[in-house]
Design goal:
By secondary structure, this protein is an alpha+beta fold. The protein has four domains: 3-31, no CATH class; 48-100 and 110-288, Thrombin, subunit H, CATH 2.40.10; 291-384, PDZ domain (Pdz3 Domain, Roll); 406-493, PDZ domain (Pdz3 Domain), CATH 2.30.42. The chain contains eleven helices and 30 strands. The strands form six sheets. Strands 24, 25, 26, 27, 28, 29 and 30 form a seven-stranded antiparallel sheet that branches. Strands 3-4-5-8-7-6 form a six-stranded antiparallel barrel. It has a six-stranded antiparallel barrel with strand order 10-11-12-15-14-13.
């Protein structure tokens, strides 16, 4: 009998006794505990059986049009590839599943009312009586929508409503007893969690792909914080469900990041809580109403937040207020930072349009703003969002102020505004930049900009500007609130080294 000792990790020793065929090892208890929590890869078969019958294929048709009038000779597939959305037709490949009809041969003109395949997408059954959710871009522009169930029954669908801002649409088929999906709680979804997608990529019905949640609250639009995944999504998957391991739909597969038009490992899904809010309005009214307050905003950077005394980078910085809009009536000013609405914090600027947009028009809301070093509470009545208007070109100011009313500082030469300039810009005061030197040029200021405040001190005329300069620490960057055209912004002027 031999007794042998082997040092394995510097702290763990295993003793082996060789007596015939008898061998044993001493294993620490924490190693056994680690082994008990190791999990295998997930099995998606039960989820597919559970959710698969609720996922449908959506084909759209459009009436034949004169080829000369579409895309300048560019074929339909190429036109669709230039879009970022996925409800696109298959290439004209014979025998391909759900391939669009071949283009008519030369000399044959389609009948005026003949419908031709336009695109392929996916959807899922919301209710047993035939309401189906998909993407707005899947049905956008379609003259006819056909829905095929997994049991191969085909129905002509009616578009109940589509909302392009969130890319959500609801269609209806005349059927009953359909298997509806279960809607999941998106707030429980975790980064790293397994998820599955079912759809019709390239017309291949009921294709299943899987992956994990890569990120949540991914900002790619004004009204939606997307779910990012690495689930394989391709043209035709649009409108299909993103499913968690409990068999619940947590998102609608909508977009991909791609340089080729195909899947590159990054896909985005519309969170189901947002989609349900939109679908409820579409089913009730056929359209979505959103709130607005009439401001143009930008992100608050860490450096700017420290400069103006906000402390941390948060909120939405107002750089323009629409005349007569709710924000104007409530007393908001360019340069204000909205940090809360109805007690809900605005962590980043994109939070504001979402929270305001989800507020019913006519609602009286409370805003917490940061203005010139202090917080302030304002009341505002939310209006209804209107179609976006084209901004008017700012009127160029020709009248020059008197040279005597000028002062120099911060690399700027400024002068008082004339009454005409104040009227045209719709402001009560400020000083106009007449010329610039290196520090102001590097900060991004230009001749003709109107300075409204320096270091949180409001400037109405040249003497105010001079008084503000006298209080500055010349060794530190100075924040300057200025107006350019109809936009109001901050600039940081740094002292010359």
């Amino acid at each position: 009998m031999k007794l042998m000792s082997f040092k394995l990790t510097g702290v763990l020793h295993a003793l082996f006794l060789s007596v015939g065929v008898l061998t044993f090892a001493l294993v620490p208890s924490h190693a056994l505990a680690q082994q008990t929590i190791v999990k295998g890869l997930p099995d998606f078969t039960e989820l597919v059986e559970q959710v698969g019958p609720s996922v449908v294929n959506i084909r759209t048709l459009e009436k034949a049009r004169n080829p000369a009038s579409s895309g300048g000779g560019m074929d339909e597939e190429t036109q669709e590839l230039f879009r970022r959305f996925f409800g696109i037709p298959m290439p004209n490949t014979p025998n391909a599943p759900n391939a669009p009809r071949q283009a008519p041969r030369q000399g044959r003109t389609p009948a005026p009312e003949e419908s031709q395949p336009r695109g392929v997408g996916s959807g899922f059954i919301l209710t047993a009586d035939g309401f189906i959710m998909t993407n707005a871009h899947v049905v956008d522009g379609a003259d006819e929508v056909l829905v095929t169930l997994p049991d191969k029954r085909e129905f002509k669908a009616r578009i109940i409503g589509a909302d392009k801002r969130t890319d959500v649409a609801v269609v209806k088929i005349q059927a009953s007893g359909l298997p509806a999906v279960k809607v999941g709680d998106v707030s429980r979804l975790k980064v790293g969690e397994w998820v599955m997608a079912i759809g019709s990529p390239f017309g291949l019905d009921n294709s299943v792909t899987a992956g994990i949640v890569s990120a949540k609250q991914r900002d790619t639009g004004d009204y939606l914080p997307f779910i990012q995944t690495d689930v394989a999504i391709n043209p035709g998957n649009s409108g299909g469900p993103l499913i968690n391991m409990r068999g619940e739909v947590v998102g609608i597969n909508s977009q991909i990041y791609s340089r080729s038009g195909g899947f590159m490992g990054i896909s985005f899904a519309i969170p189901m809580d947002e989609a349900m809010r939109v679908s409820e309005q579409l089913r009730a009214n056929g359209r979505v109403t959103r709130g607005r307050i009439g401001v143009q905003i930008e992100q608050v950077t860490k450096e700017l937040a420290e400069s103006i005394g906000l402390g941390k980078a948060q909120g939405a910085l107002i750089n323009r207020i629409e005349p007569g809009a709710p924000a104007d009536k409530a007393g908001l000013e360019p340069g204000d930072v909205i940090i809360k609405i109805d007690g809900k914090p605005i962590e980043k600027s994109t939070d504001l349009p979402r929270l305001v947009g989800n507020t019913k028009p006519g609602t009286k809301s409370n805003l917490t703003i940061f203005r010139r070093g202090a917080t302030k509470e304002l009341s505002i009545v939310i209006a209804e969002l209107e179609p976006e208007k084209v901004a008017k070109k700012p009127v160029e100011v020709e009248e020059k102020p008197k040279a005597a009313n000028s002062v120099q500082g911060l690399g700027l030469v400024v002068a008082d505004l004339t009454e005409t300039q104040k009227t045209e810009l719709k402001i009560k005061g400020g000083v106009r930049v007449e010329s610039l030197m290196e520090p102001a040029i590097r900060a991004g200021l230009r001749e003709g900009d109107v300075i409204l405040a320096v270091a949180n001190i409001e400037v109405s005329q040249v003497k105010d500007f001079a008084a503000a300069l006298s209080k500055l620490d010349k060794t530190k960057p100075v924040n300057v609130l200025f107006r350019r055209g109809d936009l109001t912004r901050f600039a940081l002027i740094r002292p010359m080294p």
